[in-house]
Specification:
The complex is a heterodimer of chains A (about 400) and B (about 150). Chain A is about 35% helix and about 15% strand. Chain A is α+β, with helices and mostly antiparallel strands and about 400 residues long. Chain A has one domain: Thiolase/Chalcone synthase (Peroxisomal Thiolase, Chain A, domain 1, 3-Layer(aba) Sandwich). In chain A, helix 6 packs across helix 11. Chain A is globular, with a radius of gyration of 19 Å. The two termini of chain A are about 20 Å apart. The chains are: A alpha+beta (about 400), B mainly beta (about 150). The interface between A and B is large, with 40 and 46 residues.
């Protein structure tokens, strides 16, 4: 039994996106509750209707949300393993609960608050374990240091350049400039990019996503029921998660073979996603690609079949991912690089806006939107939303 | 480019104050050997294939028998980054340092997440031959690192 076309997103809620720590004195669970209240209200439902939760990140839990929001009973509560790699996949987890009859109204929510621990140095805060000892002795303090190792090999293998990374940063910022919800709306020039400090060579400041606070929630229910609710349903066409052993712990052990090392780990997930959806990359109208680091956008464009392996750089250099004139507008809200980093949930939000036709940078007649979660250690995930 | 150190600058050791070694029965032999300045790799005692890190099962034949083989200490630079900006106070005295991925040719298929130290930044090249060197820390832990074979 497939989840294809059986469920829909019927409600969307979000807090503002805040610069790191600026959401205080609100708490993270409070931000999450605000997103849930907004999403349920948007759906025209009551909090009493919620009977399921699907997560991929930490910082809050179901009994807290039930007690705080007055949700009487849940029949499904589950977290996708991993972290940001599961952001798109958590929507599929909700679909699976509904299609299998385990719940009727499932909230998918994610949130971040970096007041105590910034993500930029989060690797240094990981527990000391025998497994972690094999990377933590080397001064890989933050995710950016790890992804820099992937980026340099990618450049070496394919001839990609910093010009290509810059195009991802610049095109994404151009989208954020027009988005009143974006944290950074200052236009960026090519000179700005190349004058930025190198954080982990070859990655400069603008190759990194933002460090922000906020929460985003969506409400998922059956497609049949969705058609009777207030908002036009955003159909969940397909969702897949997981990945291959050859990607595995990826950036934590860095032992992938060369062909996989220079990918994003998404290839098997992308293949299953398109099979489930019955569509091809050419059918996708715009894509919300997990953009924690610019080179990983290139690798995902390749893994999702928008161009051949190694062609991500020339593909973006052609203007393909630009909102204006691009064949595949990418991260139309300004992405995690410029709008807000909510562990991938901002991408789900933007995909819903695009399907509803309410996006700030609306892609004309957008009918199919791709969302990705990851790359990180497995699972990674992909989601295709469709206009009903 | 701002933030970029001089290419003649020498790669320092990373901020090891952030590292606290913990081991289990599977990983301890690697670190015990390191303390004796011996680089070893885990080979499956049944099918002979190497794996690093040393997990409790061979992923190919699921054997739990490990044959720890002493390696030559030679490595090939697979990828690296130059960290020239301190994002934590503990990093200030260590920059620039060079986290690196090093393939171990005499333990085929294995790669260490380590550092290149004591080498000019401008001479770093993917594919460069490296040789192991040892960083003895104040708390009795020794960490394998690498230096360029051709440092001149």
């Amino acid at each position: 039994m497939s989840i294809c076309n059986r469920t829909a997103i019927v409600g969307l809620g979000s807090t503002p996106y805040y610069k790191r720590g600026q959401s205080l004195p609100q708490t993270l669970p409070e931000l999450v509750c605000k997103a849930i209240i907004a999403a349920v209200d948007d759906a025209g439902l009551r909090l009493e209707d919620v009977d399921g939760f699907a997560y991929y990140s930490e910082g809050f839990d179901t009994p807290y949300l039930m007690e705080t929001l007055g949700i009487p009973e849940v029949t499904f509560t589950a977290t996708l393993t991993g972290s940001g790699g599961g952001s798109a996949g958590a929507v599929g987890l909700a679909s699976a609960a509904i299609v299998s009859g385990q719940a009727r109204t499932v909230v998918v929510v994610g949130g971040t608050q970096m007041a105590e621990q910034r993500f930029g140095s989060i690797v240094s805060a990981y527990p000391d374990t025998p497994e972690n000892a094999f990377f933590s002795s080397s001064g890989l303090v933050g995710p950016g240091h790890m992804f820099a190792l992937l980026a340099r090999r990618y450049m070496h293998r394919y001839g990609a350049t910093r010009e290509h990374f810059a195009e991802v940063a610049l095109s994404t910022r151009a989208n954020a400039v027009r988005n009143p919800n974006a944290v950074i709306r200052k236009p960026m020039t090519r000179d700005d990019y190349f004058n930025a400090p190198m954080i982990a060579d070859p990655l400069c400041l603008f190759d990194f996503c933002l460090e922000t606070d906020g929460a985003v929630a969506v409400v998922v229910t059956s497609l049949e029921r969705a058609r009777d609710l207030r908002r036009d349903p955003v159909r969940i066409l397909a969702c897949s998660q997981g990945g291959g052993r050859d990607w595995g712990r990826s950036l934590y052990w860095m032992n992938m073979e060369d062909d996989v090392f220079v990918s994003s780990g998404h290839r098997p997930v992308a293949k299953r996603l398109y099979e489930m959806a019955g569509v091809t990359p050419a059918d996708i109208d715009c894509a919300q690609i997990y953009d924690h680091f610019t080179p990983m956008v290139l690798a995902q464009l390749e893994d999702y079949g928008f161009c051949a392996p190694g062609e991500g750089g020339p593909f973006v250099a052609s203007g393909a991912i630009r909102y204006e004139g691009g064949s595949l507008p990418v991260n139309t809200d300004g992405g995690q690089l410029s709008a807000g980093y909510i562990w991938g949930m901002s991408h789900v939000r933007e995909a819903v806006e695009q399907i509803r036709g309410t996006a700030v940078n609306q892609v004309k007649d957008a009918e199919l939107v791709l969302v990705t979660g990851g790359p990180s250690s497995l699972p990674v995930s992909g989601l295709i939303l469709a206009r009903d | 480019m701002s933030g970029n150190p001089n290419s003649a600058a020498i790669a320092k050791a990373p901020p090891t104050g952030l590292f606290r070694l913990t081991t289990d029965q599977w990983t301890k032999p690697f670190w015990d050997a390191a303390r004796e300045h011996r680089l070893v790799g885990a080979a499956c005692a049944d099918c002979g294939r190497f794996r690093m890190p040393p997990t409790p099962f061979c992923p190919h034949c699921r054997s739990q028998r490990i044959d720890w083989r002493e390696l030559s200490g030679r490595g090939i630079l697979y990828s690296y980054t130059i960290v020239a900006r301190a994002i934590m106070p503990e990093m200030v005295d260590s920059i620039p340092y060079v986290p690196a991925l090093v393939n171990l040719p005499d333990a085929p298929g294995t790669r260490l997440i380590t550092n290149v130290v004591g080498s000019p930044l401008g001479r770093l090249r993917i594919g460069a031959p490296l040789r192991v060197t040892w960083l003895d820390t104040d708390d009795g832990v020794t960490i394998p690192m690498f230096t360029l074979e051709d440092n001149e």
